[in-house]
Design a protein that fits this description.
By secondary structure, the chain is α+β, with helices and mostly antiparallel strands. Helices cover 34% and strands 21% of the residues. It has ten helices and ten strands.
Length: 301
């Protein structure tokens, strides 16, 4: 079954079909449910329990509360993979941005004849919507169709993450990053609470055999599993760990919770993105106690 799922995720015809299925469901659910009804319904379906918004204690509950009650307009700029580049540059982090090929408002703006041998296209407002170019594009029409479907999606509807509601949808193309010493690119995700990094999620081999480990702020491995299996080997503390902590504190100080993501390759540090609702607030923690441990770090006003 896992092999079948892996194959379907790589089959572009299937991806396009599922994208338009998502668009249809988004349009239907937007008319059918208000925000609170939607998050209660999804929470019950995903996690198998009722959502407590009156006295939220869990991390997953508090993220739903924040979706419905915490609004800062700047968050819409931050969740956009294109406009966050201006935000980070204004805050003095321009040298730590991922190198890009270009940004586009439509597929027609992309010059497919003059792309690098390797690069990665991403939806500017979305998660897990990407296409990796490695050599000649075999089905260009299919690539274009998939990217056009990205621009029709409004992922706000799927988890009611309000910052995406009115965000401008576009496409960004990044240079493909490969470490010379270890080609398994690692993504370091700092879970921050009122400017204090507390836990780090490390994603290993993102595009192939995706694995995840969790560490505390002292880089002690935690017995947490969610979304993907744990890595078989312990992950070495990154060379730029202290700098990551410093940047994460600065970038998270204005919010009750935000996840600050970094990439490191050949000891070079880059900022990935800032995420306010990890997994849209539907993480299924194993063991369950970590849902409460993470939740204790968020103070609601």
């Amino acid at each position: 079954m896992e092999k079948i799922k892996s194959y379907l995720k790589k089959n572009l015809f299937f991806v396009l079909l599922m994208n338009y299925r998502r668009i249809f469901i988004q349009k239907r659910n937007l008319k059918k449910y208000d925000d609170e009804t939607a998050v209660r319904k999804i929470y019950k379906e995903r996690l198998g329990r009722e959502l407590d918004l009156d006295n939220p204690q869990r991390f997953t509950e508090k993220l739903q509360w924040l979706k419905l009650n915490y609004r800062k307009p700047i968050m819409s700029k931050i969740v956009d993979k294109i406009s966050i580049r201006d935000y980070l540059t204004e805050k003095g982090y321009g040298d730590y941005l991922m190198p890009i090929v270009g940004t586009y408002n439509s597929v027609d703006e992309i010059d497919f004849k003059n792309l690098p041998e390797k690069c990665i296209f991403k939806a500017s407002c979305g998660s897990s919507m990407h296409l990796v170019k490695n050599g000649k594009i075999k089905y260009l029409w299919l690539w274009k169709a998939i990217m056009k479907s990205w621009l029709k999606m409004n992922i706000y509807v799927e988890g009611r993450e309000w910052p995406y509601k009115d965000a401008k949808r576009g496409i960004i193309c990044e240079h493909f990053i490969e470490a010379r010493t270890d080609n398994k690119l690692k993504d370091y995700k700092f879970f921050c609470f009122n400017g204090q990094p507390e836990f780090i999620q490390v994603d290993v081999d993102l595009l192939k055999d995706h694995r995840i480990n969790f560490y505390d702020k002292n880089w002690v491995l935690q017995s947490i599993r969610c979304q993907f299996p744990n890595s078989d080997t312990d992950v070495k503390k990154p060379h730029n760990f202290d700098l990551m902590v410093k940047f994460a504190k600065d970038l998270s100080k204005d919010f009750p919770h935000v996840r600050v993501d970094f990439y490191e390759y050949d000891d070079e540090l880059k900022i990935g993105e800032l995420t306010f609702f990890d997994g849209s607030g539907f993480y299924n923690f194993h063991p369950d106690e970590y849902d409460f441990i993470f939740g204790e770090k968020i103070f609601l006003k």
